[in-house]
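Morning, I've got a small favour to ask if you have a moment. It would help a lot if you went through both lines with me. Thanks so much in advance, here it is.

***
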Amino acid sequence: MARSESNDMHLTLDYNSEIYPITTGERINMMLATSLAASGSDDDAAKTWRPDRDSDGIDKDFEYVMYGKVRL
C-alpha cells in the first residue's frame, strides 16, 4: 500500500517484491501509462519493454517496468 505525497491518492499494488524490493517508508517515483512508446502510440509498444532489446520508449527511464490493468 502506498499514498501520494499530497495524500490525494492511495494505491494498492501487486508487484514482484523479490525482483524489486521496496521497504516501508521508502519513496518511489511511479508512472502509469497506456503505452511504453515515447509517442504514446500502441504501434511501437511491443518493441520497447524487453530488457534484451534497445529501447526508445519510456521504460528506459525506470528500473522496474510491469504490465497490468488498473481497476477502480
In short: The longest strand covers residues 2-3. The radius of gyration is 14 Å.
